[in-house]
Each structure stands twice: as structure tokens, then as C-alpha cells.
Amino acid sequence: MTMKTVSVRISDEEKRQLKKYGRLSDTLREGMKLYLNKKKTDELLCKLEKMQSESQIKTSIDEEVKLIREDRER
């Protein structure tokens, strides 16, 4: 996988806070991964809600979480 460089402007305060958790680049990389995972989860939940509204079959929140986790493990 080819790695690309991304520049980010942050305040001195934000930089200081981020450095508390390790190297700045590693912290920002992990933050971007978490952000992207959240967006993907939001999209999946939106699709699930749409499918549920179109179908008579209903699932519980626990079942939905289980399905999302199974999908992520693929």
C-alpha cells in the first residue's frame, strides 16, 4: 500500500494535547482511522434502517450490533 502525505493545520494547544498520546503522526493517523470507521458504521446503520423500513422483518439493537461486527470482521 502506498502511503500519502497529508498536511493539517492545528493550533499549538491541539498539538500539545495530541502529543500527550504519542507521536503526532501516529495519533493523527489513529484518529483518522477512528473517524473513517465511525462514518462507515453510520452508513451501514443508515442502510439497515432503510432496509428495515422497507421490510416487515425487525431486528433488535443487539442483533444489529452483532451483524455490524460480523460485517467488519470479513
The secondary-structure class comes to mainly alpha
Order of helices and strands: HHH
- The proportion of strand residues reads under 5%
Instruction: Give the N-to-C terminal Cα separation.
Output: 19 Å
Helix proportion of residues, in percent? over 70%
Number of helices: 3
Number of strands: 0
Number of domains: 1
Please state the CA-atom Rg, rounded to the nearest Å: 18 Å
Which descriptor suits the 3D outline?
Answer: elongated
Biggest sheet descriptor = none
Please, what is the average pLDDT?
A: 90
Low-pLDDT parts are none
Please, could you describe this protein's structure?
- The chain is mainly α and 74 residues long.
- It is 70% helix and 0% strand.
- It is built from 3 helices and no strands.
- The protein starts with 11 loop residues before the first helix and ends with a helix.
- The model has no long low-confidence stretch (mean pLDDT 90).
Index terms:
about 70 residues, mainly alpha
Short précis:
This protein has 74 residues and is mostly helical.
Which helices and strands, and how do they pair?
Blueprint: H1 12-19, H2 24-54, H3 61-73
